[in-house]
């Protein structure tokens, strides 16, 4: 619809005023130096090489904290929510979707020229009773389809990639987790989820997200067997998202490179989706961050996200650990500089 010039200007102005905070942040992120780090922002180094450097675990409420929002917009070119897209959070009652928190993240990302990854279509937690009480497979499948469609249609063109299934395998390996989806649909729930997701959004990249495969060789093989089976069955999957929550023990050199090459041979992408390092040893933490990102980039990974960036809002199972790249008062730690150096040193993305 064409509006008179004045009205169009008014609408634009109102939009600007509503999001003025985000625009101020964008302006800040264009500065040469990342606020207080003494060097360029991570996203600036990444963008020279077409790399996504993101932060997951973004609870929209954290954006109320100006420092949090400033560092997020300044350092990262991708974000994903923490729990807000998990079933219980976004779809707490059969007839009600709670869009507001995720909409807020998407708006923030748009204003700050960031992309958004959807996380949580199927996760191992957070499923409401109205869903898990459905025992008939056809009805369960219908519930899954309408849930995926509602969410993926709303965010089509706004979320460029999704973790469709998260943590399909048992934590230590040894078979599939018998989660709420497995219980009703059996092991085929994974293939079904990807098919429903592709039908709901033909353009978004679809990932299977898994933990601990970098440190457990048996589980690594199981994931490979699972994913290569999906590919053989023509299931629409674009890649593997490695969580990479690392606790104390460095990843054996070469493991990331091997995974990238194995999945590449299947026509799939590998990403790092939730990197963080849980240890009380700051030197070891710096080294692990640097080594992981360095090897990942050299292997050709172009999409790396951390699971949060400030220890102020960290999710850890190791008491006392401060797993992220910035401390509680937003000062960059050794891990930040190690990641920065890895991005800077990379000659070019593959
Ligand atoms: C975590 C959240 O960070 C916590 O707030 C929540 O209590 C539990 O889930 N892998 C995942 C994430 O894919 O969804 C998990 O997020 C962390 C592990």
Automatic annotation (TrEMBL):
GH10 domain boundaries: 37-342
PROSITE patterns: GH10_2
EC number: 3.2.1.8
Taxonomic superkingdom: Eukaryota
Gene3D superfamilies found in the cross-reference section: Glycosidases (3.20.20.80)
Catalytic activity: Endohydrolysis of (1->4)-beta-D-xylosidic linkages in xylans
The protein's name: endo-1,4-beta-xylanase
Pathway this chain belongs to: Glycan degradation; xylan degradation
Species, as recorded: Aspergillus keveii
InterPro entries noted in UniProt: GH (IPR017853), GH10 (IPR044846), GH10_dom (IPR001000)
